[in-house]
Amino acid sequence: MLGRMLALIRYSVPAARTEDFAAQARDILDLFAAQPGYVRGQIGRSVDEPDLWALVSEWEGAGFYRRALGAARMAMYPLMTLMINEPSAFEPVDGAPAAGGGEE
């Protein structure tokens, strides 16, 4: 798993924009999935604060993620006003095995 990184982009989405946001986020995730170095990704919504959403993806390295951001910038642009401005790239620091017994 050496070199892998986790990307977490959080959004604050008003209830009136939920449907549009979810569709656009799926499009971004599809664009990410077509990029080199993409491992997996998903869209999540906070169970405690329904306006808080996250676009989470895993990459083979930070360079792959940064290049993918460039490739997806036009798709991401409409959601920029909803994006929470904070760092989005994280490196794994705990190698604990996944629940169920082992790594994939």
| Cα separation of the termini | 10 Å
* Poorly predicted residue ranges: none
Q: Under the CATH scheme, which class?
A: Alpha Beta
Count of all domains = 1
Q: Structural class, judged by helices and strands?
A: alpha+beta
Beta strands, count: 4
> According to CATH, what is the topology?
Alpha-Beta Plaits
Order of helices and strands: EHEEHE
User: Taking all residues together, what is the mean pLDDT?
Assistant: 90
- Tally of DSSP helical segments: 2
Oligomer: single chain
Strand order of the largest sheet: 2-3-1-4
**What value does the Rg take, in angstroms?**
14 Å
Shape: globular
Taken as a percent bin, the fraction of beta residues is 25-35%
Description:
This protein is an alpha+beta fold and 104 residues long. A hairpin with a 6-residue loop joins strand 2 and strand 3 (52-59). The chain is globular. It contains 2 helices and 4 strands; from the N terminus they run E-H-E-E-H-E. 30% of the residues lie in helices and 25% in strands. It has one domain: Alpha-Beta Plaits. The model has no long low-confidence stretch (mean pLDDT 90). The protein starts with a strand and ends in a 14-residue tail after the last strand.
Question: What key phrases describe this protein's structure?
Answer:
single chain; 104 residues; alpha+beta; Alpha-Beta Plaits; four-stranded antiparallel β-sheet; 2 helices; 4 strands; globular
